[in-house]
Every structure is written in C-alpha cells, then in structure tokens.
Amino acid sequence: MEVAGGLLILYGGVGPEWATRIAGAIFAVTMLGAIFMVHWPNGWNFMAGYGEGTNNMGGMEFQVLIAAISIFFAARGNSD
Description:
This protein is mostly helical. The chain is built from three helices and no strands. Helix content is about 65%, strand content about 0%. The longest helix has 23 residues.
C-alpha cells in the first residue's frame, strides 16, 4: 500500500489529479489502520510507548498528522 501510494503521489505531482487523490485515500486507510490497531493503546504522545516493559510503538500523534494530510490530498488533489 505504501509503495503504491508513494508512486501515485509522485505521478500525481506531475500528472493527473486522480493519482494524487487515490494516493491520499490509500495513505489515509493505511494510517487509520495503524492508529487503531497499533498506536491507540499508547495514547497521543509519540514517546509514550517507549521505555522498559512497553511495546515500543509510541503514541499516535505522527500517524494522525499523516492521516490528516492524506485526507487533505484525497479531498483536494493537486489542484491550485
């Protein structure tokens, strides 16, 4: 998913707008899955999951940022 999304983002930057929108949707689904399946139990702070006896996955603040940007790309595309 991430490789396909990355290639579509690159293609959408110089090509058709639909490629950017699809890439945004792919990344949004991937990040929402990562948030709810892995990072949610650690809370918001990215450093919250680090330390002795933890799963070292961190919180969800960075993944929420990527999901928000992805949703923006899915909704807006690469138009001016």
